[in-house]
Amino acid sequence: MFYRFKPFILIMPVIFSIVFCGCSRQWVISQGIEFVVPVILENGLDSFLKESDLIVAESGITSNLKLMEVLLESNPNNQLLLNHIAFGYCAYAISFVEYEMEKAGFEENEEKELYHRERARNLYLRAKNYGFRSLKLTPDGNKFVEQITSKKIDMDAIKAQLKHISADQHQALFWTTISWGSYLQISRDNISELAMVPIFRLMNQRIQELDMQFFFGMPVMIDAMLYAMPPMIGGDEIESNKKFDMVSDINNGRCLLNPLFKARFFCTQFDYPEAGVAILKDIINKDTSMWPKEYTLMNTIAKRKARLYLKYADEIF
Q1: Mean pLDDT, 10 residues at a time, over the chain (317 residues)?
Q2: For residues 65 and 89, is the Cβ–Cβ distance under 8 A?
Q3: Whether the Cβ atoms of residue 17 and residue 31 lie closer than 8 Å to each other
Q4: CA gyration radius for the chain?
């Protein structure tokens, strides 16, 4: 998804069609997008996940997100584009903006922390809205979005409607959920936002029913983090620990974001400072050079965050 590609890949089919087919410009662009975008996005996502340089990764995300939004203007109902844009904004906020937010917080730079927190919140909302657009492409998805955005929330109706979200809408539901969950995670001081956690839990349950191993076991990791919340809003130490172990089984321990989040959320919530520090040190010292390349970027991000958390371990734990 996020890598540099030469523009003639898109331009040449359009020129060829205009010259030889006499088709309308809008139709040609739309058809070109339908034909080329799936190849670019799927291959680009693989390239993005294999990137080891965080500066290259960050610049690639921001530039290609805008490019995809331009393509979306000509094909607003392209589900693949909508899903990848939702993923992109969510990944950018989690991987880069939240890092700056947390770093500023540890350094007691309140103005900078608030700035990046607001940026992250807005990016998560943007990602969630693209996820909504993707879900609304089907009648069942549209009905679900109407239910969760209604002023009057009916949990039983939402739970029943989620059963109608099928496998072809799985990615849309996943990126909507993780974007919304990340937004809630950095909005814990807002009681009205926390009131939405039960809906978020139902959404993640449906995702796991459809494919709990998706994206290296991330749906189960979401569950682990939900159980790592305070007991008054559904936290459960035993369940959280079990879910973190389950994620490790799914990805064979190769996604270091899993132990990172366990140290940051589980160990802080349930008061395991020594275990938290040990996990962070293990992440930093882990030799991942022989691991599958698709884990490279996530593990690079995890190692950078682990170094930050270890530096301020006394404050965290």
Answers
A1: 39 42 48 53 74 93 88 90 94 96 97 97 97 97 96 94 96 95 84 81 96 95 93 92 98 97 97 98 97 96 98 95
A2: yes
A3: yes
A4: 20
Q: How far apart are CA 221 and CA 258, in angstroms?
A: 7
Nearest CA to 300 out of 57, 62, 43 is that of 57
| Tokens, residue 278 | 């040990």
Q: What is the C-alpha to C-alpha distance for residues 303 and 256, in angstroms, rounded to an integer?
A: 8
Cα(184)–Cα(100) distance, integer angstroms: 18
Closest to 129 measured CA to CA, from 167, 162, 83: 83
Question: Token digits for 8?
Answer: 């003639």
- Rounded Cα distance between 218 and 122, Å, is 22
Structural domain spans, the chain: 212-317
pTM for this entry: 0.86
Whole-Å CA distances, 280 to 62, 267, 274: 29, 11, 10
Tokens of 79: 């589900």
Tokens of 39: 């190849």
Token readout for 144 is 């679900």
Residue-level length of the chain: 317
Nearest one of 62, 85, 98 to 176, comparing CA atoms = 85
- Residue 310: count other Cβ atoms within 10 Å of its Cβ: 17
What is the residue whose two structure tokens read 């459809």?
A: 210
CA pair distance 124, 183, nearest whole angstrom: 6
